[in-house]
Amino acid sequence: MSTVLYPLMWLLQIAFLSFYKIIGSYGLSLLLLSVATSTIMAWLGVLIQRYPEREALVQRLMAPKLAAIKNEARAEVRHRMTVELYKRYNYHPILALRSAFPLILQLPFLFAAYHMLSNMEALQGVSFWLIKDLALPDGMILGENILPILMTVINILTALLTPGFTKKDKVQTFVIAGLFLALLYNAASALLVYWTTNNLIFFIRTLASRKHAEKVIVEKDKRRSIRELIEYIAPLFKQYFALLSMFYVFQAIALERGLYFSSFLKYIPFFIATLGFALLQVYEIKRSFQRSFRYYVASLIVGISLLTAFLGCLLIIKKHISVREFFNFSSYTLFTSTFIAGIFIRKEKYEEPLETLPRWLLLFIIPLIPAIHYAKVNGEYLMGEYNIYFFIVILLVAFINYMILRSSVDYTRTKSDSILKAAVFTLLFISLPMFRFALRLTSQVDIDFWILAFCTFVLINLINNNKRFTRALQVSSIVLIVFIVSSLVTRSEGSNIGYKRKVLKEEYKSIVLKEKPNIYLFVYDGIPNERVFREQGLPFEELSSMFIEFQFKLYPDTYSLGDASLNSMGNMLDFSNRPIKTPEGRDVYTGNSWVNLILRENGYESRFLLESYYTGYAAITHTDLFDEIYPTRSINAAKLDFFLVLIRGVLQGEMRFDTRGLIALEDVDVQSYKQKVIKEEKESSFVVNHYGLPGHSQNSGKCLPNETELWVEKFESTLELMRSDFETIRDYDPSSIVIAIGDHGPSLTGDCYNLADWKREEITPDLVWDRIGTMVAIRWPDQDKASHFDDHIVTNQDVFPVIFAYLSNNMDLLKLCPESTFWGLETISRPKIGFNKGEIIR
Amino acid sequence: MTTFIILTIVFLLSPKNVYAYLDPGSGAVLINLLIAGIAALLFSLKGVFLKLIGKKPKGEIEHKDKDVVLGVLSEGKQYRATFEPIVNALIDHKIPFSYYTLDIEDELLKRESEFMEARFLGYGNLGFAKASNLKASNLICTTPNIGCKGYPIRKSLHINNLIHVFHSINDLSMYRKGSLDHYDSVFMVGDFQAKSIRELEKKRGLKEKKLVSLGLPYLDTYSGEINNTANKKDKKVVLVASSWGSKGLLVNYGTEFIKKLTEANYSVIVRPHPQSYVSEEKFINEIESEIAKLDSVRWDRDISPTKSMIESDLLISDTSSIRFDYAFLCQKPVISLEVPLDAMPGFERDDMSELWMEEAEIKIGLKVAKEDIEKIIGFVEQALNEKGSDEIVTYRESVIKNFGSAGEAIAKYVKQVLIGEKQ
Q: According to the model, what pLDDT value does residue B134 have?
C-alpha cells in the first residue's frame, strides 16, 4: 500500500516540510497542510460530483420500471427484464459505486497522511497546544484520547446536517465514523490533528451548502440501488470464496502431512473463505427460498453445519480440541456442507454466449498454458507417462473448480461465465509460483493471491457476450500455441538419460592408489567456512571444537566452484569448474563421475546414501556404477516421486527447494542406515551421504525476518548429527578418510538468493562468500603425510585430486585440481561474476 | 512467415534452467507471454485494420445480435416533438427499429414496444463516439453537420443510408455550412427544399442524395396541441420570438420597438430562444430586466411555445422558423424583421443563390427592413388586417407535405421503400 501511495506521500511530505520551514511550527504546519489538502479535495470533488449525480438520476429514471419488474414471478424473466432495462440506460450495477466516489476520493489522502505522519521522526517529542507529543496519541483527559472522539463527533454532525442525506446515508456515515474511530483511536496525534481539521473544514462547507442544496436523492431509489448492488455482487463473491476455498483444499492436498494446516496464516484464511462461501450460500437460500423438498434439504444441511461449528466452539472451551483443529475441521465442514447445500438450489437456464465445444475448449486451453511452461522448464521431473499425468492433473484441477462453481454456486451466471472464471482461476493458481518467484514473495501468506484473484474476477465480468468470449478463446489459443511451440523447440533435457557415460581416460586409468582406506564423503548442506561464520556472527566455536576433538583438519577460506548442491557436487566429483546443469549434476552424483570411476577402477565399492533429489532417474539407470544406493527405489517409484515433487510445488503455490515427493524416508532412517554402514566391516568403500541440513535460505529471493535464526536452529541440530557420525567413525573406522564438507554457503545476506536486483559492481566479496564459502574438513589417517599435499586445497573441487595424490603418493596428480575461479551468479540483466580466493573478478 | 519469426525468436530466447530444485521459470514465461501478447495483438489489429479499409475480416464470427435495418438517432429531449410522431408511426406499422439517444432523460427512452429497442448511448464524448459507430442499414437523424470537421458526431462506417429529417421549416439557408454533405437521403418538408439541396451538391461536387418529400414530423405534435379558438381579450397580443446569437432580433433591434408596441396598447409576449439562456445568459437577463419595467409585457420561458402561440394574434420574429410554425399551425400573420446578412457568417446561405425564406416570409405576413422599425405599429396593424387564415392555409398546403401526418408518411415510406429494398 505504501508503495502505491508513495507519490502522494512524497507530495504531502514536501508540502508539510515546506510549511514548517516558513512557519516554524509543526502543529500549525499540520493545520495548513489540512487546509491545502481540503482545498484540493474540494476541487476534485467538484470535478467528480457529476458521477454521483448521474447515478442518482439514472436510479430515479429506472425506479418505476424496476418496481414493475419486482412483481414478475419468475427469476429468469426478472433477470432478463432487468438486463434489458440496464442496456436501455447504458447502465451496469457496478456503476452504483459512483455514489461512493466522494468517500473514495478521501481515502488516498488519509492513507498517505497515515503512512507519512506515523513514521515521521521529526514529530517525536514535539508538542502543540494541549498535545504533549504529536508522535503519540493525545491522551489529553485522564489518559483517554480526545482527538479521535472529536473527529467522530464532527463526522456525525456532518452526517446529520448534510442536505439530502437519507436515513440510510446517515446510518452508513455513522458506521464509517465508528470504523474511523476504531482505526485511528491509537494513531499519532499529528494524524488526528490533520484529519480532524479536514473534517472540520468539510463540516463548515456542509453548513454553507445547506441553504442551496436541493433534495435530489429519492430514498427509495437509493435503497433500491444498494439492494441491487448486493444482489449483483453477492454471486460474484460467492464464486470468489468458493474457488478460494478450493485453493486452500488443493494446498492442503499438497501438504506432506495430511490435510491439516498448522500455520494460522493458512487455517484462518481458509476458514474465512469457507465462511464467506457458507454465509453467501445462506443468503442465496433465504433470498430464493421456495417451499420445496430441495430447499428444505439445503436448509437442513446448512443447519447441521452451523450446529457442528457451534459444537466445535464448545469443545475448544472445554479444551478437548485446539483452536487450530477447530479451524481446520470447521473449514472442511463448512465447505462440504455449503457445496452440498448448493446442489439443491434451483438453477436457472440462460442463453449461452458460447456453444458447448468452445466452452469446454476454454476450460482446458487456459490452464494448459502454465502447465506447458512448467513441463518445459522442469522436464526432469516428468518422466515417461508422467508427462501426460501432469497435464491430466492440471485439467482435473480446472474441472473440479468448474464443477464447484456450477454445482453449488452459479444461478445467475451462464455456464460460459463459470467456465471462464474456473479456467482463469486455475491459470492464476497454477501460475502462482511463477508470480511469487518474480516478485520475491513466499507462500507463507496468500493475500497476494486473494487480491489478484479478486481483480481478475471483476475484469472477467466484462466478458459477457459472444464476441468477447470468442475473443478470449482466440487469444488463449494463440498464447497456448506459442507456449507449445516454445516448449517443443527448447524442451529441456528430461531425465538423466542422455548423458554420455564417462570412460576413463588413460591419464586417469594410470592413477594407481597405493593405499585404499574407506573414504567417507559426508556433505552437510550449506555449512560455510569459518570466515562466513565470523562475518555473520554465526556460532562457530562448537564446530571448531568438534573438529579438533575428532582430529579433523579444517581448511581456511575454502569455497566451491558451484553455488548450488548439484553443480557443486558435480564439479567436485569431476574435479572441474565447468557449468553443470541440474540433470547432469544428478548424473555425476550418481556415479558417472571421474572420482567414482577412478575409485572403482582401483577396486573400491561405491555406496550412495542419497535422496531422490540428488540422483533422479540415474538411481535406476546407473546401477552398474554403484554397489548400493539407499533408499532403494524402483523405476516407477522414482518417477512418481519426481512427479509428486512438481505437483506439490504447483499446488502449494511456491516452488521451494525443500519440496519433497513420496520417497522421502525420514532423514532419521537414512542417518540410522548410515551409522550401520559405518559400523560394518568393510574395505575400500566409498560412502557418500548428503544431509539436507542446515541448508540455505528458502529460495524465494527475499529474506525472511528470522532467516538467520532458522538457519542456526537447523545448524545446531546438524552439529549433533555430525558428532554422532564422527564418534561412530572414530570408534569403528578410525583409519578411514573422512571428508566433511558444505556444498555451498547459507545465503543469509543480500536477498538470501541470487542477488537478482544487485548490479555487478554492487556485489561484494562478502556476498559471494555467503553463497559459495564452504566448510572443508578432512580427517586423514596420516595428517603429516597429508600436509605434503593438502596446501592445494582451496576449493571443494581440489579435495579429490589431493586425496588421490595422497593415496598414490604422487604429487603430479595435484595438477588435476581445477582452476580456482568461480564464475556464476548471472541473471538476465547481469553477466557472470568471477571470484578467486576472495577477490571479485569483474 | 509469422510462424517462422516466432519460432526463431523463441529459439534464440530459450531459457536456461536454474541450477537446482523446481523452476518456476518466471523469466522464461515473461518472454513467452510477450511473444504471445504480440501475436494476439497482431491478430486483433488485423480485424480492426480490415474494418478501417472497409473489408470484412475472413471468418468473422456471425453474432447472434440481429442486424439493425432502421435506426433513429436523437440528440435529446429537445427533439421529442420531431421524433415522437415517427416513433409512434413505426410502432403502429409494426416496423422494428432501434432508437438511440444522447440524453438519458429523453422521454422516448422509456417507450416500450416489441418493435422498438431504445438505447441511451452515454454522456459526452463517449456518447458521441458510440453515435459515430452505430450499425444500421438506415439511420434517421435530425442533426446537421454529421461528419463535418469540428463536429462531435462522425458518420458511422456501418451506416449504409444516413437520412436527414428536418426539425424546422426552412430551406438549408439556416443550417451551418456542410450541414447535409455527408447525408445519403433527405426526408424533405416539401418540394421547395430540393432546389437548395441540389444547388449545394452541384457546387461542392457531392453525390446526389435521395430526396423524398414527406413532411415535418413535429408539426404532427403541435397541430394536435394548438386549437385556434379565438380568445376573447381586451387587447391584441403580439408575440415577439427571437432567435439566439447574432441573428436574434433582440441583439439587432433591442427593446425599443417593444416599448412602442406597449405604448400602442398591445400586449406583448417576449419569448427568447431556449438556447439564449445557455449561450447568452447575461444579455438575456439584461433584456429581461429592461422589459420588466414595461406594462403589458410577459416574459415566456416555457420550453414549448404553444401557449404563447395560442394566446397571441401576431408574431414578430427574425429569421427563425417559428414564423412558419406560427403561420402554419395557428394560421395567423407574421412580421419578419430583417437581419443583416453579415450577422450570419458560416451558414449555408453563403453558397445559395436564392433563399426560399425571402419568398415565404411575404406569403405569411410582412417583412420589415431595419430602417423601417420605427413604423412597426403600422406594420402590425397592416398584417392583422390583411393576412387572413385562408391565404396562409393555402400557402401551407402548397409548401408542406402531409401536414399533421408526416410521421405516418415516413413510416409508410420506410416500410415500402427502405425495408422493401432490403428484402
A: 94
Q: Does any CB of chain A come closer than 8 Å to the CB of residue B125?
A: no
User: Could you tell me if the ipTM is greater than 0.85?
Assistant: no
Q: Does A83 contact chain B (CB < 8 Å)? A: no
Quick one: how many helices (H) and strands (E) in chain A?
31, 10
For B132-143, the pLDDT digits (tens) are 999 999 999 999
Range of the domain at B322: 229-399
In total, how many domains does chain B have? 3
Distance (Å, rounded) from C-alpha B154 to C-alpha B128?
8
B210 and B346 assigned to the same domain: no
* Residue B327, in any domain of the structure: yes
**Smallest Cα distance from A398 to chain B, Å:** 20
Strand runs (DSSP E) across A155-222, as ranges?
A: none
Question: Can you give the CATH number for the domain in which B189 is found?
Answer: 3.40.50
CB A248 within 8 A of CB A404: no
- Please check whether residues B73 and B155 belong to one and the same domain: yes
pTM here is 0.52
Q: How many residues does chain B have?
A: 423
Q: Any CB–CB contact under 8 A between B422 and chain A?
A: no
Alpha-carbon gap, residue A723 to A634, rounded angstroms: 33
For residue B21, pLDDT beyond 60:
no
Residue B151 within any structural domain of the chain = yes
Q: pLDDT tens digits for A175-212?
A: 778 878 877 888 889 999 999 998 898 888 887 776 55
Shortest Cα distance, chain A CAs vs residue B394, angstroms: 44
Say whether residue A471 is in contact with chain B using an 8 A CB cutoff: yes
Which helix (H) or strand (E) segment is A237 a member of? helix A219-253
Chain B contact for A655, CB < 8 A? yes
Q: How far apart are CA A494 and CA A583, in angstroms?
A: 8
Which residues of chain A from 713 to 772 reach within 8 Å of chain B, CB to CB?
Answer: none
Partners of A523 in the β-ladder: A690, A741
Q: Do A655 and B39 touch (CB under 8 A)?
A: no
Tell me which chain A residue has its CA closest to the CA of residue B98: A88
Residue the block writes with cell 503512512: A115
B22/A482 CB distance under 8 A? no
> What is the rounded distance in angstroms from the CA atom of residue B108 to the CA atom of residue B90?
13
Does residue A488 belong to the interface with chain B, where contact is any CB pair within 8 Å?
Answer: no
Chain B touched by A491 (CB under 8 Å): no
- Render pLDDT for B176-203 as a digit per residue (tens, 0 to 9): 899 999 999 999 999 999 999 999 999 9
Chain B residues near residue A58 by CB distance under 8 angstroms: 104
Same domain? For B259 and B330 the reply is yes
B125 with B15, same domain? no
Same domain, B97 and B191: yes
Query: Measuring CA to CA, which residue among A42, A67, A413 is closest to residue A208?
Result: A42
Distance in angstroms (rounded) separating the CA atoms of residues A128 and A200 = 18
Q: Do A565 and B119 lie within an 8 Å CB cutoff?
A: no
Residue A564 contacts B, CB cutoff 8 Å: yes
Q: Cβ of B6 and A482 within 8 Å? A: yes
> Does residue B143 share a domain with residue B85?
yes
B221 within some domain:
no
Is B423 within a domain?
no
Q: Are residues B107 and B256 in the same domain?
A: no
Given a cut of 70, is residue A221 above it in pLDDT?
A: no
Q: Residue A196 corresponds to which cell in the numbers above?
A: 480532524
CATH number of the structural domain spanning residue B241: 3.40.50.2000
Identity of the amino acid at B391? E
Contact assessment for residue B299 and residue B318, using Cβ atoms and an 8 Å cutoff: no
Name, in order, each residue with C-beta under 8 angstroms of A682's C-beta and a sequence gap of 6 or more. Answer: A518, A605
Cis peptide before B345 (omega within 30 of 0): no
The residue of A373, A491, A697, A757 whose CB has the most chain B CBs within 10 angstroms, and thus the best one to mutate to test that interface, is: A373
Read off φ and ψ for residue B403, nearest 5 degrees: -60, 125
Same domain, B269 and B357: yes
